[in-house]
Structures are given as structure tokens and as C-alpha cells.
Give the backbone structure.
Amino acid sequence: VPAPSARGRRAERAPACATPASSSGRAHHGNPAAHELTIKPDHRRGAGQDQTLELFSAGADDVVRKPIHVREIVARSDAVWRRVNDVAAPATSGRLQVFFDGRDPLVDGEALQLPRRERHILEYLVKNNTRRITKTQLFNAIYGVFNDDVDETVIEGHMSKLRKKLRQRLGHDVIDAKRFMGYRFVG
């Protein structure tokens, strides 16, 4: 799979099935365990259960019927990517433990309840703690490049709330913010 999402891939509003690109398990970016994901439209009319089962037996990971929105295709390909690439072990930084499987982070062994978007921002910053992440990068990672309904300044609000919650529980700021440069998790 090329990336954690298929956002850069052009997709159609048509039925699609996601199948492995090759049965040989072709490596991607030097990782022999990674498999490439292909989205193929299925334009057959009146495709029933037998044809769906035929696609699954041929190696398809998923089958969808028309009409389908491109965001659903992206979400389905992300799910396949997560299954192929094991979820990372939790990251621990001092009193803070961050999980990458949807669980809330722990501070001193107690859950820090975070809304979904704030939790995703924290996870993304922890995964990329060696570099600064711009507001645009965070927006694309959290909301996706197909989301034109939301302005990327919403990240500032999420970040402000997240930093305040972490500062209250930990007693110090674990996210460094530099104007025009972005954010970085410093633990």
C-alpha cells in the first residue's frame, strides 16, 4: 500500500473492488511485507451475490456497488491499509501514553478523554515527533484533502483545546508551537 490513505489516487463514482495488485505480494518502498492496493471499478449490471462471492474468491478485499462516493472508497482503502500494516505499539513519553488504535491516551494510568479529532492530532504529532508539522499537513491528515467544507483554521481551535487539556493534566506543554512553522510533539 503506497501510503496511509489513498487520497492522492483518482477514483470514480462507480462500483469498485479493492484487490491486491499482484498475487506475488509485490513490495512497496522497500518493505517486503507491504502489498499494493488497487481500486478497480466493477461496471457489470445486475451483479448479484454470486458475482460478489466470485470477486472475493478471486482475492478481492472488498466489493462495493454503485453509486459510491470517493470518500467511501478512500475510507475502505484506509481500512485495508490498517489491516495490512500492523498498528504501532503505544508510545510513552514520561507520564503520557499514546495509543494508535483509537483508544484515548493515558496520563498516569488514567484515560484522558479527547474528542476524535484532537486524539487524531495527538497521534499524528507523536508519530512524527522528529519534525515540525504544519497546519496544512495536520488538516490533510485529519480531515483529508477532499474536505472542502471545512477551513483549515479549524486545526488552530483543536490544537488550542488539546494543548490546554494536556497542560492541565501534565503540568507542562508537550506540543511546541511556532508561528508560521507548525507544531511538534516534544514530550
